[in-house]
């Protein structure tokens, strides 16, 4: 499969998707987003893939939505363009998505990282929501996911000043999972992806789904949802295999059913 703006590499159960619009700091134009989301959805239904790592270049994960596509667009044109439909589809991916962020993750780039399930950053990474500098505001979750991740005060400082934060600050704020030397960033994300892909795929999927529920439900509803997922997994072959393997002191062989 050949794309204009992304490349895909599958090794074992792990896919690596790379944004390849390096000369524009991976600015997320409409075509790039279409390619990216179509490929993520394709990987999501591929039984041979269990986890995906998404990365950019050494200088930029992504510097945001493509400003040149928005500069002359009217509100009505933007509304009709409906570019967020594409973004919404990321939320419904069932398999874990890990962002490996080097360099700039700004605006839509930061929102794309936040749409991932786990974020690994290189020391040189910079996260920010600079939309306010352009006279606009985030539109793909920047005011929503950021608040949930770092709290209101920190989110407002990032959103209102437009100033980026460092990887170390992002870690301290709870926005990301870990900071590693930049040259090891993708490698570390792939390592985590390999660990995840050695687990029972259905359990992984339902854990992701259940954690997603924690975002937009009451504790009571979330607990109930979790319990039903738990019972569902108790009916899986992988539960039988996982528990038997433990009793027999051997490694389990999971098949995702
Ligand atoms: C279009 C972009 C771009 C962007 C960089 N480029 N970011 N083009 N949209 N978001 C292009 C530049 O125009 C330039 O093209 C080339 O990439 C290299 O960028 P430079 O600015 O020359 O590089 P540098 O001096 O290293 O500065 C890097 C940077 C800066 C700090 C990341 O490019 C920057 O501030 N970019 C904009 C960041 C931003 O405002 N993002 C939010 C966008 S709004 P040429 O052709 O000159 O070489 C948004 C809304 C989200 O994301 C809504 C949801 C979809």
Automatic annotation (TrEMBL):
Biological processes annotated in GO: fatty acid beta-oxidation
InterPro entries for this protein: ClpP/crotonase-like_dom_sf, Enoyl-CoA_hyd/isom_CS, Enoyl-CoA_hydra/iso, Enoyl-CoA_hydra_C
Pfam families documented for this protein: ECH_1
Key words, A-Z: Lyase
Domain of life from the UniProt record: Bacteria
Coiled-coil regions listed in the entry: none
A Gene Ontology molecular function term of the record: hydro-lyase activity
Similarity comment: Belongs to the enoyl-CoA hydratase/isomerase family.
Protein name: Enoyl-CoA hydratase-related protein
Organism the protein comes from: Alicyclobacillus acidoterrestris (strain ATCC 49025 / DSM 3922 / CIP 106132 / NCIMB 13137 / GD3B)
């Amino acid at each position: 499969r050949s794309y204009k703006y992304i490349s895909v590499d599958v090794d074992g159960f792990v896919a690596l998707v790379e944004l390849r619009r390096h000369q524009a700091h991976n600015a997320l134009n409409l075509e790039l987003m279409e390619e990216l989301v179509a490929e993520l959805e394709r990987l999501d239904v591929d039984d041979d893939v269990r986890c995906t790592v998404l990365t950019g270049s050494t200088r930029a994960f992504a510097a945001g939505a493509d400003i040149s596509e928005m500069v002359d667009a009217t509100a009505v044109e933007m509304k009709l363009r409906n570019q967020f439909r594409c973004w919404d589809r990321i939320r419904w991916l069932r398999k874990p998505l890990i962002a490996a962020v080097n360099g700039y993750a700004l605006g839509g780039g930061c929102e794309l990282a936040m749409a991932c399930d786990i974020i690994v950053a290189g020391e040189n990474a910079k996260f920010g929501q600079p939309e306010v500098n352009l006279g606009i505001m985030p539109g793909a979750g920047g005011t929503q996911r950021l608040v949930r991740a770092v709290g209101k005060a920190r989110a407002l400082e990032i959103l209102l000043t437009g100033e980026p934060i460092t990887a170390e600050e992002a870690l301290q704020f709870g926005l990301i999972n870990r900071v590693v030397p930049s040259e090891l960033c993708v490698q570390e994300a792939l390592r985590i992806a390999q660990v995840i892909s050695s687990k029972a795929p259905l359990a992984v999927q339902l854990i992701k789904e259940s954690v997603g529920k924690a975002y937009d439900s009451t504790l009571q509803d979330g607990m109930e949802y979790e319990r039903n997922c738990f019972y569902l997994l108790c009916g899986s072959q992988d539960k039988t295999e996982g528990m038997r393997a433990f009793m027999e002191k051997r490694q389990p062989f999971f098949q995702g059913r």
